[in-house]
Amino acid sequence: MSDSIMALMLGVSTFLGALGLIALLWGLRSGQFDDQSKFLDGARFDGEEELRDAVMMEKKKKEALEKKKKEAMKKDYRPVD
Questions:
Q1: Distance (Å, rounded) from C-alpha 5 to C-alpha 12?
Q2: Is the predicted pLDDT of residue 35 greater than 80, yes or no?
């Protein structure tokens, strides 16, 4: 390979590494990784009953969205002239 291609590859990889490091530092500073109770709450509150409730809530949300779309379609319907 030519020297210019190697230099370009080295420069691009250094830039991408620095970009990743900056993103990691930003995430640490802004508290993106501070969810300390996630695993404890998951083990404590993810029983069968809670999972069934979550599934039911998702179904209700989907049904509500579909109903809303149907109402919007009926509302915007205009007969052909």
A1: 11
A2: no
* CA pair distance 50, 57, nearest whole angstrom: 10
For residue 67, give Cα distances in angstroms to 30, 57, 64: 39, 15, 5
Closest Cα to residue 4, out of 48, 51, 14, 12? 12
- DSSP for 11-71, written as a single string: HHHHHHHHHHHHHHHHHHHHTTT--TTHHHHHHHH--HHHHHHHHHHHHHHHHHHHHHHHH
Q: What is the pTM of this model?
A: 0.44
d(CA 21, CA 27) in angstroms, rounded, equals 10
Rounded to whole angstroms, the Cα distance separating 41 from 71 reads 39
Burial of 5 (0-12, 13-18, 19+ CB in 10 A): exposed
